[in-house]
Amino acid sequence: GCWTGNLGVALIEEKKCVVDGMDISSEGLKQAKSRGYRNTYLVNLNAEKIKIDSVVEKYDFILFADVLEHLINPELVLELVRPLLRPKGRIIVSLPNVAFGLNRFNLLLGRWNYTEFGTLDKTHLKFFTITTGKNLLLRVGYKLIKVTPYNQFGFLRHLNFLNKICPGFFSYQFMLVASKD
């Protein structure tokens, strides 16, 4: 979800976007609204019956920035938001890459330790590689436009050039852009 709206505020200020947000936290949504979000929606995407029928807008872009890995059924959520995209709309998904080299090394040593944040965040319900992330979108009928492996934190930013060699090994995260048609 959008939580307190940090990413949306950057889009509003830097790209002059009109931004709506969805989250499970009413407190986070209040902050997002006060920071310039047009509309906010209180939604539990892990509920047995997900209700997004209060969303009447159509969007050029729907962004799931490190969200899908926290969901019980990300396929269902991707299906539910599909009608909210305009005809040439795009969905943008950012996911942590569980196949990142350090994770592979630790697994070889028999270690799979959950952490407070990162690819093995203890709140993650699903884990994705670049291939399984692509397949997730394809399974629910989206058409892939672009896949970008990347690193954004600390020394990892300096490894981005290695993504051309072996993206599944050297990328900490990846971004998928897809259309609904």
Automatic annotation (TrEMBL):
GO terms for biological process: methylation. The keyword Membrane does not apply. The keyword Membrane does not apply. One of its GO terms (molecular function) is methyltransferase activity. Keywords: Methyltransferase, Transferase. This is Class I SAM-dependent methyltransferase. It comes from candidate division WWE3 bacterium. The lineage of its organism: Bacteria, Katanobacteria.
